[in-house]
Amino acid sequence: MVDVAGLVEQAREGRPRAVARLISLVEGASPQLREVMAALAPLTGGAYVVGLTGSPGVGKSTSTSALVTAYRKAGKRVGVLAVDPSSPFSGGALLGDRVRMSEHASDPGVYIRSMATRGHLGGLAWAAPQAIRVLDAAGCEVILVETVGVGQSEVEIAAQADTSVVLLAPGMGDGIQAAKAGILEIGDVYVVNKADRDGADATARELNHMLGLGESREPGDWRPPIVKTVAARSEGIDEVIEALDKHRAWMEERGVLAARRGRRAAGEIENIALTALRSRIGDLRGDRRLDALAERVADGTLDPYAAADELIAGLTGDGGSGS
Ligand SMILES: Nc1nc2c(ncn2[C@@H]2O[C@H](COP(=O)(O)OP(=O)(O)OP(=O)(O)O)[C@@H](O)[C@H]2O)c(=O)[nH]1
Ligand SMILES: [Mg+2]
């Protein structure tokens, strides 16, 4: 059994090994998961979570690394979570991330973690928010979540962020891809990276057009800015941070931040409850109660909806650890 309180204490002090142990406990759905989450809860809520998404190779890791440098200069503790929903194991793209982030490896004010394996319960969409909680409780003031690839799970993980940054690059056919993947709906800030290459202005223009940014909006609405960067040379990174600061301030002024976090918490509860319910129902296979209900449905004395209601009602109350 792990000394959870001690581990949390060490994580608060910024000990990377303690943070790593906590994330592993959470990711691996340890039997002590509940104890860990209970210990972390009162310590969370201080971190500003920024999601970075975009097609492979667009420059997410390079941008993340440059952002880390800038935030460190401002004296902030930073957490980085690199998530690859498409990969069943660590390595590949994430290995490249390691290399691009290596300059921060010896900085105790930066914690970097990769997640590629699907967690034991509800997959990455479940595991990522729990890892964010650990980093938050460990005192990270900013948490950068890089998600590789384009798809539904990417959008789901982006929804964990307070502010979502969508990156594009010239000459990658990004405009069309972006529209398909629906990432044009999730961006709070857009970055056209690799602005040292031809076509960056055209990409920014196309994006501006697709976002309908020229159209009039309600006064006070958030107008997602488009920032051009050369992440490889840290150019434009201060402008990205400025855009993030503005978005955060706008959200705080309008109560949007609290609303987003509330929605996120609701989704988290739903995920955990569904996972617990599914696992309890799974445990019932071959159980007398289920067999009895099944018999009645099979012989027509009970309809399957009423049977499901009875099943669910029978599951409430204390039902084990439910993890
Ligand atoms: N020319 C140019 N190259 C860049 C720039 N930023 C990043 N790159 C290069 O683009 C390549 C991909 O960069 P990454 O930061 O790994 O991109 P990524 O989006 O994290 O890639 P995945 O994690 O594989 O999806 C690397 O070779 C970088 O050096 C830039 O501003 N200009
Ligand atoms: Mg990357």
From TrEMBL:
Keywords: Chaperone, GTP-binding, Hydrolase, Kinase, Nucleotide-binding, Transferase
CDD domains: MMAA-like (cd03114)
InterPro entries: GTPase/Isobutyryl-CoA_mutase, GTPase_ArgK, P-loop_NTPase
Molecular function terms from GO: GTP binding; GTPase activity; kinase activity
Pfam families to which the protein is assigned, alphabetical: MeaB (PF03308)
Family: Belongs to the SIMIBI class G3E GTPase family. ArgK/MeaB subfamily.
Name the record gives this protein: LAO/AO transport system kinase
